[in-house]
């Protein structure tokens, strides 16, 4: 059965209304047979004013078929929704439609093969909150 290791987690870009964050991870087949890995990217909001899940799946991608000992870098792109929540109480004076809210603060980005896997992680900070419909 193939086994995979993840390393070299890198972020490029910044969180914003009109920008994206690219999450790059190196996947290496450390098993004895060829295989593909599904890299799952989770986001954890470390300072939300609301109770949020410990981590939320925000993207995933599959590696190409990797021979034993071979590696490749895969990329998942996260948009503003990956760092936000929908607040149906927000938007007072807007007929209570609610708003998407991205709160300023620290976020942890995790990459793993499964939700149970601790994986590897790094951090990113949203410097200023923003909202949108």
Automatic annotation (TrEMBL):
Domain named Fibronectin type III-like: residues: 37-115
Keyword Hydrolase on entry: yes
Top-level EC class as recorded in UniProt: hydrolase
GO biological process, one term: glucan catabolic process
Reactions the enzyme catalyzes: Hydrolysis of terminal, non-reducing beta-D-glucosyl residues with release of beta-D-glucose
UniProt cross-references to SMART domains, sorted A to Z: Fn3_like (SM01217)
TM spans (from-to): none
GO MF annotations in UniProt: beta-glucosidase activity
Pfam family, one: Fn3-like
Origin superkingdom: Eukaryota
Alphabetical list of InterPro entries matching this protein: Cellulose_deg_GH3, Fn3-like, Ig-like_fold
EC number(s) stated in the UniProt entry for this protein: 3.2.1.21
Keywords: Glycosidase, Hydrolase
Protein's UniProt keywords contain Hydrolase: yes
Family: Belongs to the glycosyl hydrolase 3 family.
Descriptive protein name: beta-glucosidase
Lineage: Eukaryota, Fungi, Dikarya, Basidiomycota, Agaricomycotina
């Amino acid at each position: 059965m193939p086994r995979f290791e993840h390393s070299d987690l890198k972020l490029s870009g910044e969180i914003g209304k009109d920008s994206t964050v690219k999450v790059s991870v190196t996947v290496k087949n450390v098993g004895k047979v060829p295989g593909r890995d599904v890299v799952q990217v989770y986001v954890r909001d470390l300072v939300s004013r609301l109770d949020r899940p410990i981590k939320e799946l925000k993207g995933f991608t599959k590696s190409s078929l990797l021979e034993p000992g071979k590696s490749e870098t895969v990329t998942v792109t996260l948009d503003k929704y990956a760092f936000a929540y929908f607040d149906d109480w927000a938007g007072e004076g807007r007929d209570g439609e609610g708003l998407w809210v991205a709160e300023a603060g620290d976020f942890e980005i995790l990459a793993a093969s499964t939700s149970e896997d601790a994986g590897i992680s790094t951090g990113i900070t949203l410097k200023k909150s923003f909202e949108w419909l």
